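Repro:
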Amino acid sequence: MSEIIPAILEKDFDEIKNKLTALRGQVKCAHIDICDGIAVPSVSWPFSSGGIDDYNFHKIMNEEEGMPFWEEFDFEFDLMVADAVENFDLYMKLGGKRMIFHPDMKGDVEEFEHFLEGLDMYVRDNVEIGVAFRPSDDLSVVSRLSHKADFLHCMGSDKIGFQGEAFSEKALENIKFLKKSLPGVVISVDIGVNLQNAQKILDAGADRLSIGSGIWKNKDPIGALQSFESLL
């Protein structure tokens, strides 16, 4: 079943909370972008405010509190960070139902494969692992990793860590190719999805659409969200 997932990329924790407040009762899953300014040029919470020393992040890591409205949302965290593998246990404390990795940031595909193979069974049973790829990435590597992940996360642009980028036609071709070559694969799409191209992306085989600026830059974000959902 297809799904629309609002994407949140913010430097300020209070703004994340504000957007989640607006989404309460509207969706079950929310996508949170985590950017460290190293793996990608952009910086988002918690790295925009001290990283592990950020007040709210620190409280979550110490299990003194959870993400805002954690009882109501299944969070999907997009780890655009250099230490996603090394500090995976730390990021797990954010409480994500889905965790997205960017193996191109790791550099060593075999090492990343070993990481996926070595994940604790509790994690594999309770958390969906996504493998992200850019339009220009080698699809043979993506296909190889797909067998060790729960879904593929297709980036709509090679410029990641930002919202409002144009969607690449190459990404559309990649979705069609992977859907044909990997029967049953689940593909989520992130970056550049708008009301003009969303139907085309769904028709290509996308199962989930993570949408940031297409929702939040609209004068009526919830109305925009409902317009996207009407396409399903």
